[in-house]
Structures
1.
Amino acid sequence: MKIVKNILTKNDCYKAGRTIAVKGLMIHSVGCNQPSASAFLKNWNRSGVEACVHAFIDGNSGTVYQTLPWNHRGWHGGGSSNNTHIGVEMCEPSQIKYTGGASFTCSDKAAARKVAERTYKSAVELFAYLCKQYKLNPITQICSHHEGYLKGIATNHGDPEHLWKGLGMSYTMDGFRKDVKAAMGGSTSADTSDTSTYTVKKGDTLTAIAKKYDTTVDELVKLNNIKDKNKITVGQKLKVKNSTGASNPEKIAEDGTWGPDTTRRAQEVFGTVADGIVSNQMQADRKYLGACHSSSWDFDSTYTGGSSLIYEIQAWVGANQDGTAGKETIKKLQTKLKSLGLYDGAVDGSCGTGTVKGFQKWLNKQK
C-alpha cells in the first residue's frame, strides 16, 4: 500500500481545525464514474466545498491519497459519524454510468471489476493500518456509509455495497471486515490465539524463518496460504505458531546510531513496512539528525509526503503529524523518552547519540 499525503488545506473542513477521538472507520465510494483521485484532490481543495474525507483511493493505481489528518473531524458521513469516524472514499470505474439513485449500467464489467478490486485491496490494507493505530476492532468498528445510515449515524446512501453488487462481485462488508482482520495478522477461519506475526526482513527465507521458530517450511506455507514457497517479500507479514517456542525479537545494538537495524525494528514495532529506510525526509532537517545514518535515511530537497514510520512516531509522542523528523518532532521524542526514564539529555531538538540510545532502549523493551 502506498500512502501519499495530500492534505486539502484550502478546504473549509480542514480550516475548521476540529479533531475527534477516533471510534470507528467508515468506507465510502464516490458515487460517480471517476477512477482518478486527482480529480477530487483538485476540485475539493478550495473554499465552499461542503464535504471532505480523510482519504481517496485511486482506482487506476490503488494509491491512497490522505486528504485530512486522521484525527481531524471530516465531513463525510453526515449525522454523528463525522464526530467519531475516519471516512475513506474509493474511486469508481469509468465504465459505469449512473441511471438514477444507486443504479447504473456498465460498458465493460471486466475492466470495471479490476478497478473495484484494486480499491478494495488497498482499502483492506489501509483499514488494517488504521485499526492498529487506533486500537480498533475490525469486526465491530468498521462500517460502510450504507450501514452507517442503518445505524442512524449517517445520511441515506447505498455505498459501497451498491457498486460491488451492481458489478456482480462477491464483496460484502462482512467479508471486508474479515479481510481487514486477516491483514492485521488475525484469522477468518480458525483460532489464532496460538499465533503471532513475523515481518519478513531483507535476506530472509522461509527455511531460515522456519528454523528460527522451530517449525517447517510446509507448516509456514499452510498457515499463511503461500502459493510459491520460494517467493516472500520484505515487509510481508507471516503468521507463526507461538507453541513452536518462538523467541522474542532479537535486540538491536544500543549504540546511539540510527541505522537500518534501528529503523527496521521501529517499523516492526509501529506496524509499518519493514524495509529499513526512513523515506522522504527533508534535506533542511538533516542538521537535526546527527546520529541518523545516511544508509537508512532518505533525504529530499522538497516535501514529498514524509515517512509512514515518522508519522507513527509523531502520533506516539504527540507531535504534529507530517511524516518528517524536524526539530519539533525530535523535541517531542526527547520529552517522551525523558518521561520514560530513558533519556537524561537536553530537550533541544537535536537527534544525537543520547536520543537514539534512549529510543533504542525503548524499542528493545517492546515485544
2.
Amino acid sequence: MTFASLGLCEPILRGVRAVGYEKPTDIQAQAIPKILRGEDLIGLGQTGSGKTAAFGLPMLHMLTGGEPGLRGLIVVPTRELCVQVAENLRQYAAFAGLHVCTAFGGVDMSIQESAFKRGVDVVVACPGRLIDHLERRNLSLEKVQMVVLDEADRMLDMGFMPQIRRIFVRLPQERQNLLFSATMPKEVEGLVNDFLPHAERVQIGTRSQAAKTITHRFAAVSVTDKASVLERLLENEPGKVLVFVNKKIGCEKLGNMLKRDGLPADAIHGDKGAEQRHVVLQAFTRGKVRFLVATDVAARGIDVDDIDLVINYDFPLGLEDYIHRTGRTGRAGRKGRAISLVAPSEKRMFTAVHSHLKGEQPQEGAFPSFRGGYSSGRSSGSGGGRGRSGGKSSGGKSSSGGSRGGSRGRTRHAAD
C-alpha cells in the first residue's frame, strides 16, 4: 500500500515524499480513508505508530484548494506537543499553500496574534491559550470543518474537560470530529463518548499495549541508591536516553546533578519557560544533550525517533503512564529498551505493570528481592535490549540528587 493509494492529493503527497515517508503505518492505512470519507473517528495506537500523520494528512488534503481561513483545529495537552505537531503539519503542507499556526502559553500572545493575521488555515493549540485568543477575538472557530483532540486521554485526565467543552460550544454544528490517543482508559471512555457518540474506531494493538519492539527490564533499587545506579547506567550508554521522574523539583535537581558530574544531560519540566524548553528539546534532538530528564507532562511533545533507552527513575504512577513513557523508544519499527528503577515503596505499581506486560493477573510474589543492588527482568516483547551493569564506581546519592553517601550495593541480574 502507498500513500497515493489512500487518495491523498498531489501537493500533500509531495510533502510526504519530502519528509521521506515510503509507506503508511497500520493506523495511517486504516484511518486516512475513513477520515477522507468524512467519518468521525477514534484512533488508538501505540506511541510512535504515526498518529500525527494519520489525522494531519487527511486534514490538509481536505483543506487544500479551499477558501482561506481557519478551517482545521487540533487541540493538544502540552506546549511541546503543540510545537511538534505544528512542525510536522508544516512539512506535510509545504507544497499545498496552507498556513499552520500555534497557540500555547508561556509566550507573548501578540506574537501568535500577528501570525494569525498573516493567514491561518490550521491552528494547533493548547486549551487555555486557545480560549484566551477566542475571548480576545483574535480567532474565530465559525468556519472550522475538522477538529482533532490529540493525546485525548491525557487531555481529559489533566482536567481539561471544562476548557474542551467551552471550545466545542464555539464550533459549528456541522463538523468532523477526530480523537487520537496512545491509550484510552476505561474510566475516560464515557467522556470520550460525549464528543464522538457515533464515531468509527480504529485500534492498532490492544488497549494500553506496549510496543512489541521494546525490551522491558526492572531493577530493584533502594531510594538512596537510585542516583548512583542511574549514573552507572548512563556512563555506559552511548545513545540518547530519556529519564523520567514524577515531580518537577526532582527533575531539575536530578538534571543538575548529572550535569555537575560531567554528563551531557539537561532537564525539561513545566516550571521552565517555553523558550527554555524549546532550547533543551533542540539540544536533545541534535544530540548535544544525550541524557534528558523529564516529567510526564513535559515529555508529551518529545517526538524523537532515535531514543535508545527510557529509564523510569521514579516508577510511573499508573499503567497508562508506563505505556506512554516507554513508547518514547522503539519508535517507527526500531528496537528500544526500557529500564525501571523500582524502590520498595513502588512495588505495588510494579506488580501491576509487570503482570500486564506478561499478560497475567497481578501476582504479589512477582517482585524480585531488594537485597541486591538491582535486579532486572525482561518482558515477552521483542527487541534485543542490553542490561548494563559496568562502569566506574562513585558514592551513592539520594534520589533527589542531593548529598552523597550510602553504598551502591551488589548488582544482581535475574531473568523472569
